[in-house]
From TrEMBL:
<dbReference type="InterPro" id="IPR030382">
    <property type="entry name" value="MeTrfase_TRM5/TYW2"/>
</dbReference>
<dbReference type="Pfam" id="PF02475">
    <property type="entry name" value="TRM5-TYW2_MTfase"/>
</dbReference>
<dbReference type="GO" id="GO:0005759">
    <property type="term" value="C:mitochondrial matrix"/>
</dbReference>
<keyword id="KW-0819">tRNA processing</keyword>
<feature type="region of interest" description="Disordered">
    <location>
        <begin position="94"/>
        <end position="132"/>
    </location>
</feature>
<keyword id="KW-0808">Transferase</keyword>
<keyword id="KW-0963">Cytoplasm</keyword>
<dbReference type="GO" id="GO:0008175">
    <property type="term" value="F:tRNA methyltransferase activity"/>
</dbReference>
<keyword id="KW-0489">Methyltransferase</keyword>
<feature type="compositionally biased region" description="Polar residues">
    <location>
        <begin position="99"/>
        <end position="119"/>
    </location>
</feature>
<keyword id="KW-0949">S-adenosyl-L-methionine</keyword>
<dbReference type="GO" id="GO:0002939">
    <property type="term" value="P:tRNA N1-guanine methylation"/>
</dbReference>
<feature type="domain" description="SAM-dependent methyltransferase TRM5/TYW2-type">
    <location>
        <begin position="1"/>
        <end position="205"/>
    </location>
</feature>
<dbReference type="InterPro" id="IPR029063">
    <property type="entry name" value="SAM-dependent_MTases_sf"/>
</dbReference>
<dbReference type="GO" id="GO:0070901">
    <property type="term" value="P:mitochondrial tRNA methylation"/>
</dbReference>
<protein>
    <submittedName>
        <fullName>tRNA (Guanine(37)-N1)-methyltransferase</fullName>
    </submittedName>
</protein>
<dbReference type="InterPro" id="IPR056743">
    <property type="entry name" value="TRM5-TYW2-like_MTfase"/>
</dbReference>
Length: 205
């Protein structure tokens, strides 16, 4: 169950679907109008426990979120994975069958109702997976192609600050560093030259 930090989340086109699929998301955008509507989208999609919205500059968010995730991780109830559409349908069918069976007064009708019941959906676990530390951010998403690459310099000081505060525990949890997904522009059309162009832009920062 991944923990994601969406640096330029907008109204939530990445954050909300990720939360619906079971991820926990710190979703940020500097634009207050965007975060206002992102909160609406989070509520309408019933993922409020799984998304934390903030309105910060991207660089400040990167520096802050590693500390927030470490010091105040998502609570256990956030780890209840949302039911899929199929699971919700089966759950509704099972509830209707149980209700129909309870309203039947004859034994034969009760037997028939019990025979038609759909198996109940197992309750999802409300605990973080044992192999995953809830303080660890797995992915950073940076979907601001024009300028996202300019914020890469914020990561090293952010994690250095965390390590200075919590020492070897940080090194253990972050033995493998998060994957940073940077969306950016290039004028090059060929894959190799485009890759070189992006690397040069990154190194220039």
């Amino acid at each position: 169950m991944p923990l994601i930090a969406d640096v330029f989340a907008g109204v939530g086109p990445f954050a909300v679907p990720a939360a619906k699929r079971g991820a926990l998301v710190y979703a940020n955008d500097l634009n207050q109008e965007s975060t206002k509507w992102m909160e609406v989208n989070v509520k309408n999609n019933k993922v409020v426990p799984r998304v934390r919205v903030s309105t910060l500059d991207g660089r400040q968010f990167i520096q802050d979120v590693v500390h927030i995730a470490w010091a105040t991780p998502f609570p256990p109830e956030a780890y209840t994975k949302p039911l899929s559409v199929k699971e919700r349908r089966l759950k509704r069918t099972a509830a209707k069958n149980v209700s129909a069976a309870s309203d039947t007064t004859t034994g034969s009708a009760n037997d028939q109702g019990a025979g038609n019941q759909t198996p109940a959906i197992d309750a999802p676990s409300d605990q973080p997976p044992l192999e995953h530390d809830s303080r660890r951010i797995d992915h950073f998403v940076m979907n601001l192609p024009a300028t996202a690459i300019e914020f890469l310099d914020a990561f090293r000081p952010a994690f250095a600050s965390l390590r200075n505060l919590y020492g070897q525990e940080v090194e253990r949890i972050y033995e493998t560093m998060p994957m940073v997904h940077v969306h950016c522009f290039t004028r090059e059309l060929e894959e190799q030259t485009a890759h070189k162009d992006v690397i040069e832009l990154s190194d220039a920062r």
